[in-house]
């Protein structure tokens, strides 16, 4: 990669660590100078790859979001994921220390460390599978360090590359890992018995990571042996306790201090001793108080050009959604960093073209009004958010808990807007409270739209108001700038006592 190309959005690429087909692994720095590990795959290669789960781009987004929700001490956090300049990427926290593959080159790992490594790796794998995340490339190179400090890297990579992987593939890899670590200890009967089950029974004996982990942990109990007898002491020193900074130091060392001190004062009454103990232990421990999720979400609403969701996932703050332009993405990261003190947080952001900033800001108040409803206006792309050339655009729109009139607009990557409803052949925009309206179906005579070039991330905007926004139907296609200027004027002229306009936005990725 040329020097002028050594950036990917907010990341500065330092050096390439690994290459696996179309996927590349980089050491990188984010805009704040923090080190990250960055997996990348060209979008063209990702979209061309077959996937057992359907559309590969949609699978990537789903898997990356699921990986960002993983919270486990042996899994590095997924910090961000998305698409930029034709590249899909996943950024994870870096992990220090040699890989298990490097460690094994120096000789066998002792049994206790082998058991501890497998225990931690299998626990991480089980947590990932329960969250719907597949690794897809588990081996000794994906494990850094060994024993109780082992870390399993590569879950973010799985979102980009593991198109055919499933939990069974991970379990097969875990059994191979168990064989690799335990074979050097097969002279022990209990290890030999487990290896025989791993090789002969496979999935039948260990249907999931938890089952294999349980069997491995039994080895740890066997190797530990019976508890050692307490040491004998020929001389018994008196036991004294000294309170120092809230910590009780007890034992022979305290006795020695007492023996070289002047004669002790008479002991305090029991009630005073208990009070002193409580006082000594009552020093406050400074903690960083985590702000409420609602406070972080409110702070993010001040960031223009965004469509975000903020949630607590197993004690970790996750901010996901779409930002229109790199500047908006940077503002989101800065706002989260300034307002989420005390949280372990992750970002799962898709960066759309900056041109979509204007429509998002134009309907920002309507988007907020819709979020506050118990039964909001909803729009769904029935074939998913990723469509290819020739695919039909089909929608389902659900009205809120009041009758509304719809305005449905599709903003294209080339700066145009197509008015899906109303349009010259369909002006039936009224929708009863809670009613469902379908657009783009295959019924005879029904209006249809198909995907064509240019391709990229495009935006679907649905607005609901008590009355039609415009007195006459606008041309079916026009320049987005002209329409947005007219839309802003209309929204500003709505009566103050009228029900607030509602809006919902969906981003759609199109490709050849």
TrEMBL record:
Gene3D superfamilies: Phosphorylase Kinase, domain 1. GO terms for molecular function: protein serine/threonine kinase activity. This is Serine/threonine protein kinase. Residues 388-468 form the DUF4384 domain. The keyword Transferase applies. The keyword Transferase applies. InterPro entries: DUF4384 (IPR025493), Kinase-like_dom_sf (IPR011009). Pfam families: DUF4384. Keywords: Kinase, Serine/threonine-protein kinase, Transferase. It comes from the Bacteria.
